[in-house]
Write a structure and sequence with these properties.
Elements: H1 3-18, H2 66-70, E1 73-75, E2 81-90, E3 110-118, E4 120-129, H3 130-136, H4 142-164, E5 178-182, E6 192-200, H5 202-206, E7 217-221, E8 227-231, E9 241-244, E10 251-255, E11 264-270, E12 276-281, E13 285-288, H6 316-321, E14 328-331, H7 352-365, E15 371-374, H8 376-389, H9 391-394, E16 398-400, E17 405-407, E18 414-417, E19 425-431, E20 440-443, E21 458-470, E22 477-490, E23 497-500
Parallel strand pairs: 1-21, 14-23, 15-19
Antiparallel strand pairs: 2-3, 4-22, 5-10, 6-9, 6-11, 7-8, 10-13, 11-12, 15-20, 16-17, 18-19, 20-23, 21-22
Length: 505
Amino acid sequence: MTMQTDVQDVLDRLKTAQQRPLGDPRFKSLLGLEKSTYSESASATSGLTFYDLELGAKFIYPVLTPLRNTIPRVSGKGGIQAAWRAITAINTNGLRFGVSSANRGGVLAVATQDYTATYKGIGVETSVDFEAQYAGQGFDDVRAIAAKTGLEALMLGEEAMILGGCASSSLGLTPTPTLTALTTGGSLAAQTWSVICAALTLDGLMNGSIAGGVQGQISRTNADGSSDTFGGGVAMKSANATVATTGATGSISATVASVRGALGYAWFWGAAGAETLGAITTINSVVIAASATGAQTAASLGVNDNSSNVLAFDGLIYQAVKPGSGSYIYTMAPGTAGTGTPLTSDSAGGIIEIDAVLKYMWDNYRLSPDTMWVNSQEALNISRKILSGSQTAAQRFVFETAQDLVGGGIMVRTYLNRFSMQGGSVIDIKVHPNMPAGSILMTTRTLPYPLAGVGNVMQIRTRQDYYQIEWPLRTRRYEYGVYADEVLQSYFPPSMALITNIGNG
């Protein structure tokens, strides 16, 4: 028999065997072949199956800190606060400069201002049980993860404080709402409704929700058993206003006068004395169309103003809105309740409200901001307003001829400031993860003033930059603290501007 015949014979026998199922009667006498002893488990954690778990935890959460990343950090020199003085204007008495023969000129008057910024400690604690460390052996270094997540959490909290920490600009008493009863647009039963509003800082808005409520006074128990009490970003609630609805399809439009520094408003409604949280808005109005779905009552807020936080430093927004700062605060008109007033296209590729702010900054301070910090909502609305006013000139399409594709979608990433010495300067538009809808913050990195003596228009001044403490063992748990001691300095608040109460549209 040749080798070729042997190979062909083996192939024929394999084909014959493959055509005979294990259920063939001829295999019944062979134990273990008719039915498998072991089969694939339906569970990933039972049976004799390998658990295909990749080593190392994946850190799938954003750590977006654009302001912290770009604002310079400098070392302080002790003390309890950073203090500096500035000359803010010269020739404030309108002196004329002509002089007569042999005589001296007039005396120049200047304006000065003192600034202070109190240092604040920031920090967070993490811990790892002994058992958690034992369980993580061979998978990940749980103690290292605790330190890493603590530092990243501190950076995220610091970013929010740099943007909107509110230490000294309390919002005060929220104005009483103005109510109008409507016979359509909702499902309110016929009754007398009471409405209460509470203005919110950035902190209050970021940490508030319909389900969880808004935080008035916060009492926090710390890792060492001590406690701190501070404001959660909610202003003193308004007096209640009442209105009666009729029928079964009623609704209520509610509006309050805009509160300087408020980036949001919490609305409570129901029977008088039992008003419940039903809406949180970023404009100063709301349309109430149904019974409130939240659980928090207005009575739970108490009677105090809890908008400021004594443990925080003033961020950019609240250094801008502070009385006497010189920053331009542009508040949009209330407009239609629940809708507000959106940005307005000038039909020439610009936006009326933004141009009004830029013109003011040039007319009064001869400067131009370089960055606009916006929410995703305002980024989209800015793009739409600019394109609607200049549809043929602002669009650019990219053709991929190799794949016969056209790339769609347009995003306006810069804005041309027409009011500058250069005949036009470009302002970057950046989406900030903590910037709320309804507001735009403008900042400036450099001043156009010669020999200003200001290296950084804004900077983080630290008595002690980031440091970590591994505390002595007191239980079977490793405890870590990540801290810093710092303050935000803005040398020239008029270099900032804020547009608030912007309606979506």
